[in-house]
Amino acid sequence: MNSVQSKGTALVTGASSGIGAIYAERLAERGFDLLLVARDLVRLETAASKLRAEHGVQVEVLKADLTQKQDVLKIEQRLRSDASISLLLNNAGVAAEGQLAKADTEQLERMIQLNITAVTRLASAAADNFAKAGRGTIINIASVVALFPERFNATYSASKAYVLSLTQSLNAELQGSGVQVQAVLPGVTRTEIWERSGIDASQIPAEMVMEAGEMVDAALSGLDQGELVTIPSLPDAGEWKAFVAARHVMAPNLSRSTAAARYK
Question: How many CB atoms lie under 10 A from the CB of residue 51?
Fold first, then answer.
């Protein structure tokens, strides 16, 4: 049962800390009940108690490691079967440091499982559930490195480019269904992801690092404004619109029966 004031249940992955924990708080303020998913059950329970006490919403916690297929399937099944869920925040993710040629490929495979496979399976389940209900919201946390892959390592950048592309395609598929879709592209945000990935964030210039609360508030403002893609730190939205427009200018010429003249 949802709380009387509830807007339904928001399922938040990576909810025990950082961006996910702040989203959980903000969504509780907005009247959502919560289903919090993360690996750290102790932190989840602590967060849940605080959220129940401060916001009067129902909070359920689910311990899951989304690098493990059986745990992903558990969350996926819940998304497909629970009609109370009205928002999915695909937030859980991890970074990795170093060049692809010298990378720990086992670590990269775990990152791909979390940043790509789990995101895809959960988005698919939510899209199916929400479209049938004619309502719902899917928020996928990508990154600005999706737009500037040369500035970070290959696999993480590629994984976030995938999330952006997935969101854009999914939005097109869900047109007219009543489901809202958003990709959020943060820049460097002050969270635990850096130290967990072995990256020294103290070497990044302070003017490039946004506090997680500011990032989440900007992202939710973008959601309220109906943005498909929200870039919290971009001052001029016209730059993103120009980027999209340039892509559409190329579109009629991306697949033709003959090769371009310069190749002949």
Answer: 23
CA gap 185, 70 in Å, rounded = 28
Would you list the domain boundaries of the chain?
9-263
At the topology level, CATH places domain 9-263 in Rossmann fold (3.40.50)
The tens digit of pLDDT for each residue in 131-173 reads 999 999 999 999 999 999 988 888 999 999 999 999 999 999 9
List 23, 156, 162, 263, catalytic entry:
156
Q: Cα 153 to chain center, whole Å?
A: 19
156 tagged catalytic: yes
Per-residue exposure over 228-244, b if at least 16 CB sit within 10 Å of its own CB, e if not:
ebbbbebeeeeebeeee
pLDDT in tens, 81-93: 999 999 999 999 9
> What is the C-alpha to C-alpha distance for residues 170 and 168, in angstroms, rounded to an integer?
6
